[in-house]
Amino acid sequence: MTIWHDAFKKPHDACTFNQFYVFNSVMCGCFYCHEIYSAKAVVTFVRTKEGMPKTAVCPRCKVDCVLPDASGYPVEKSFIQIQGGYWFQNINKNIVGQDYWLTQLKKAGYL
Ligand SMILES: [Zn+2]
C-alpha cells in the first residue's frame, strides 16, 4: 500500500468537495491537464458523496482534479505540474518514486 505524503495528499484533498472553495477563488488549476484558468470558468460540479459539497470538474479536460486558490495552495504552473506529475505519472504509471516529486517541490520552493 502506498503511503501518500501530506505534501501531495493535502492539495489533492482540496480537489474534492471543493464547490465552495471554487466560488471563493479567483484562479483554479487542474492537476490532470495542468491548465490554469479563472475560477469563473469552472461551471460543472458533480456530487461524488451524498451530504458533501460537490466536486469541480475541469472545463478543459473534464477531470475532477481542480485546485482552487481559496484552498490556500498556490495555483501556479510549477506547483500544478509537480502535483499532477505525482498523481498521474508516478502513481498510475510508476515512472519515478515519491522522493523524486518531493525533491521537485523543494527545488521549486514549496517545501
Ligand atoms: Zn484539466
Helicity range: 25-40%
Distinct bound molecules: zinc ion
Major β-sheet profile: 3 strands, antiparallel
Taking strands numbered 1, 2, ... along the chain, how are they ordered across the largest sheet?
A: 2-1-5
Radius of gyration: 13 Å
Number of DSSP-assigned strands: 5
Shape from CA axes?
globular
Percent in strands:
5-15%
As residue ranges, the low-confidence spans are none
Total helical segments? 4
**How do the helices and strands follow one another from N- to C-terminus?**
HHEEEEEHH
Secondary structure class reads: alpha+beta
Distance between the termini: 24 Å
Mean pLDDT: 92
Short synopsis of the structure:
The chain is an alpha+beta fold.
Protein model, in words:
This protein has 111 residues and is α+β, with helices and mostly antiparallel strands. The protein has one domain. The protein is built from 4 helices and 5 strands; from the N terminus they run ααβββββαα. It has helices at 6-13, 19-23, 77-93, 98-107; strands at 27-30, 36-38, 44-46, 55-57, 66-68. The strands form 2 sheets. The protein has a 3-stranded antiparallel beta sheet, covered by helices on one side. Strands 3-4 form a two-stranded antiparallel sheet. Helix 3 runs antiparallel to helix 4 (98-107). The radius of gyration is 13 Å and the shape is globular. The two termini are 24 Å apart. The mean pLDDT is 92. It binds zinc ion (ZN). The site of zinc ion has 8 residues, from loops.
